[in-house]
Every structure is written in structure tokens, then in C-alpha cells.
Fold:
Amino acid sequence: MSSKYNVSVIIINYNGKRFIDQLFRSFMKMRTDGITYEIIVVNNGNEDHSIEYLKEHYGGMKQLKIVETGENKGYAGGNNAGADQAEGEYLIFLNNDTAVDENWLVSLYRSMKEMPACGILNSKLLFFYDYVTVRFETTNKVVLSSKIRINQVEYQIDAKFCKNLVYESDKLSCFFDSEIAVPLRNGVVSSQIEFFCMEDQGKQSSLVCCNRRAKLKNHAWSSISLICKDLALNKYSLIQNAGSDINEYYNGYDIGMGERDAKKYQQKYEITCSCGASMMISKEDFIKCGRFDEKFFMYYEDVDLSFRVRKMGKKIMFCPESVVRHIHTGSSVEWSPFFCYQVSRNKLLFLLKHMSWTKFIYWFLRQSAASIRHRNKYQLMGCMDAVQVGLLGKDIKFYDKQKK
Structure:
């Protein structure tokens, strides 16, 4: 199969204007070392005029190609549309809510060439910002608001970045060994981090960050401010994905999620599944294994593809030298109605396709019962739609009918 380029980078745009600059500026700093490539942006949705912005600011890039789908075809359908127009020997599927490292492309391409048994190569995904740790010193318990201010800008603390505390949507109950990872949203310039104390049951409680200590005032409804310096010496990166896998409940998960980028994530290893946020596959293998299954629309489509590539006798590998900064769920929100519907539906479709009828029926009943118990109608819609698609071959899309 003759190819015009070594690599085609395929990116889905769905109202992603806010991500364009960070991604394309990172392309401009990227090493190529003679590797030829094209960038294919697939337009799945443009209500924010993102495509016009892309053309105005980056249209001069000779390797840029824009593919119009005419509708939102999801991750699976959008990437298939991009692959149809790709002229590269290898395809890289890359999320738009990312910024690539200087060595991202070179590392993927060279590693793939060195490993002929590799079917898919998975980049190392780091959370977009670096972090510093705020630690608590208290003899009992401190209750803080879950909203803090970083250099006068409000930030909602994410449960993924908390350790040894009780997290609620509006408050955090912190103890002596509690820690919060705070993002350096302004880089390594000196940061003022402000917490709001709702309740302090300790004596002479303190917050500690970057060897700076701020004492609480021993009464509720007071603010505590930390001026953090030496951020460059104390910052660290957190893993978002170092490969993917599925657990005993057939839920997909990210290897290394929320862990520091340590030695074990700095070497190549085989993985079960690849994460679709940044992965490379030869166009020949992509076509041979049947491309993305568009029934999945979004979520589990990368797991499904990985299983089919492995059935071809190829390996899925993690490439630690290829680094991507990822905002994570930039196009959808975790536990939103859309997220609940798609994950519930696609997990069942994956089971039917790769496991057995018995497992499909068992998990359909179990998942439906849990949806009813938790009163999550969107998860239940996903279960019902999986039956329509998987067993009857009809996609009536309960979720879309609900929105109308």
C-alpha cells in the first residue's frame, strides 16, 4: 500500500474552539526528524465557529486537511471518516483536548517501526497541568469548602486528586494525613492558594505546601491563604492514562490514573487495551481489523478495536517516550446524562460482541437493576438501547428521543 505521508494525525472537532491554540501551538514545537505527516481535522460539530477559527489562524499549514461529516458521527464515525481521507502509512488518533510533547510523534513512529509485532501503540497521557501537594496538620478534623481560589480564580477541587479525606460536592473533611493535589494553572510562577475553612475541630491546625505553612484561625468561616514559591522544585506530573484495561466488572479503566509519573511508567510494556486519546496503528491493520465499530459512537470503541487487533495476533504496547498532556473529558462530562447513557449501553454491546450471550444477559439484568435502584434513567436507557442494537439490530436511541 503506497502512502503519501508517513503518518496521518486524525483529530475530531466537536465545538472545540477552546482547545485549538494549545494543540496547534504544540504541533509547531514538535520534532519531526524527517517524518512526513498530515493533520486531518474531522468536523463533527461547529456551533462555536471552531472550524472558521482553525482556518483563520492555522489554515496556512500545508499539511492541514479538514473533513466535513455534515453531522456528529461520534468518536468512532468521525475517526473512520478521517481515516477514509488519510494518506499516511500510519494513523494516529488524537483527542483535541490535548497538547503534544516535543518528542510525541518521533517516539511513536520510531517505536512502531522497531516493533513489527505491535498492532497499536499507546502514548503516555498526563493530566494537562503539573501539580503541587497541600498537606494537612491537625489533631482532629478540618472541614473546608471544596472550592478554592488560585491566584484569584475559583477552582473546584477534583476528587481524583485527593487522598485520605471525605469528599463531598461542597466540602472536604480533612484529617492529619489528608492531601490535595492542586493544579499549577499559571505555571511555576508564585501562586496564592486560598482555602475557606467551614469547621476546625483541631488545635493549631495548619496547611503545608512547598515548605510553606499557614495556620488556621481555630474557628469556622475563615479563609486561609498560602503563598507558594519554589513551585518548579516541588511540582510533579500525574498520570491520566498509561494504557487501558477492563476489570472484573468489565468496566474500562485507565492504568495509573492519578498516580505520579514514576519509574514504572517510564518503560515500554504490553497492555490489554489502548486509549483512543492518543494511539497509533498502521492504516493497513486498521482496515484489516474492520476500523472503528460505529455502533459504539463514543466510549468502548477503543477497547473494541484493541480486542480485534489482538485477535489478529498483534500486541498493544505502551510507549512512555510519547507524552501527551490531556485535559480529560473535554468533549463530555463524567457522570453527565450522556456519559451514563453511552457507557451503560456500550459496555453491554462490548460484552455481546467479545464475551458471550450469558454474560450479556447477566450484566443487562444487573445493570438495569442498579439503574432503577439509583434512579438513573440514562443508564437504564443505555441498557434498553443495547438490547435494541445488540439483539434486534435496531438503534432507536432512547437517549436522543429523551432529548427531543
